[in-house]
Specification:
Homodimer. It is an enzyme of class 2 (transferase). It catalyses: acetate + ATP = acetyl phosphate + ADP. The protein is globular and about 60 Å long. Helix 1 packs across helix 3, helix 10 packs across helix 11 and helix 11 crosses helix 13. It contains 15 helices and 14 strands. By secondary structure, it is of the alpha/beta class. The chain folds into two domains: about 150 residues, ATPase, nucleotide binding domain (Nucleotidyltransferase, domain 5, 2-Layer Sandwich); about 180 residues, 2-Layer Sandwich (Nucleotidyltransferase, domain 5). A hairpin with a 4-residue loop joins strand 1 and strand 2.
Length: about 400
Amino acid sequence: MKVLVLNCGSSSLKYQLIDMNNEEVLCKGLVERIGIEGSILKHEKPGLEGKHIVEEAMNDHKDAIKHVLNAVADAKVGAVKDMKEIDAVGHRIVHGGEKFASSAVLTDEVIKAIEDCSALAPLHNPANLMGVEACQTILPGVVQVGVFDTAFHQTMPEKTFLYGLPHELYTKYGIRRYGFHGTSHMYVTQRAAEMLGKAPEDLKIITCHLGNGASIAAVDHGKCLDTSMGLTPLEGLIMGTRCGDIDPAIIPFIMNKEGLDADGVDKLMNKQSGVYGMTGISSDFRDIEDAAKEGNKLAINALDAYVQRVKKYIGAYAAEMNGVDAIVFTAGLGENGIGMRADICKDMEYLGVSLDAEKNDVRGKDRVISTDDSKVKVLLIPTNEELMIARDTLRLAK
């Protein structure tokens, strides 16, 4: 069975076609600037020299998906001879609210429920649904499956997901902690257990998805007990451009002092803060690290603050689970930040963490990077959300 995985953003679309008989990626690509001048598709497949580029106006996601399918079925650069070889489509859906604790076949009822969650993810869910609608038109009769970023975290108990706010705000508007990056946290949890030769149900794992957007999850015997993001992806760690946890009283204070409205302060916290706002340099940690090496005090402070927040969550989750068997690093910074991983694991002997400097000297490869005698195993695992989406799509399509 061949599964097409789609991840639709507001003006972009990532895709992979995966042969689920052997989980081989047959082709993949990225469409950028959908609905904007300069639309471009970059398509690649194993054995194809360079990338196949299509620069043509794409007014909406339907146009973009037509170009994707044309590339996938192209005689020279494609991976199938006919669209009919695509057996199912798996869609990344950002927010499923409380309605979805697992992936679901996209029936009219499910699509309506996703629409109802759009108020909680106004930039993402509508774009995700555009991709669904386009595929329904272009690939009629093909099974469509939604895989939710929030689903993995739906095992959190009420004591974890409830805020200290009037209860009617939860019952009326669904204001609670949901968590994100769930597909990534689920994948690395399963992969970590596999690498350690155990079942997820036998382990207490802390998964650290550290990228421009970042979150940490406490996975207790295969189920999410807690995670750092909340109602939105703003809560939790300091990130590339997001502030993470702050005193909520700062918001009206800034609004009054800077003359900002709600949209203005939302933009400040989501787009102008994080390590970018703290340094004025960049949201890319590589740029921050370069500046820190040159002695830039703001860059040094930002990196120290980032490491401190990650360590704080790891310690909290170890306490919450009454211990931890493994800590996993994944996503862009987690997979490639050799020094960052070392700084986070430093001075964690109390917890039973002992990092092996030689094993840690690696980027983007599955590896146990703790010492052989480390009580808590530390692992580096490149995330693979697309494969996770494809696996769930295969399961439901069958």
